[in-house]
Write a structure and sequence with these properties.
Largest sheet: 2 strands, antiparallel
Strand order of the largest sheet: 1-2
Number of helices: 2
Structural class: alpha+beta
Distance between the termini: 28 Å
Length: about 80
């Protein structure tokens, strides 16, 4: 992990996982990529495509601080 806040991890999305097309990715991608930083006092920054109130609540339970802008035109309580 970089001490200066640079890219630490990523996942290349190609439209499906195996033979299954995934339509709701936001929470699952962040949850998967954040597994190694749980309960280590890190802050996760994300753009408005990924962030939701439910995701922020989930990350809090895993000891991960998070920051980002919520898009007012989206349903911020989505799962």
């Amino acid at each position: 992990m970089d001490q200066k806040g640079y890219l630490w991890n990523f996942d290349m999305y190609i439209g499906k996982v195996g033979d299954v097309v995934q339509k709701v990715l936001e929470g699952s991608v962040v949850k998967k990529l954040s597994l190694p930083i749980q309960n280590k006092n890190y802050c996760l920054y994300m753009d408005n495509y990924f962030i939701s109130v439910l995701l922020l609540d989930y990350l809090k339970t895993k000891g991960i601080h998070a920051c980002g802008t919520i898009n007012a035109s989206r349903n911020i309580y989505q799962k």
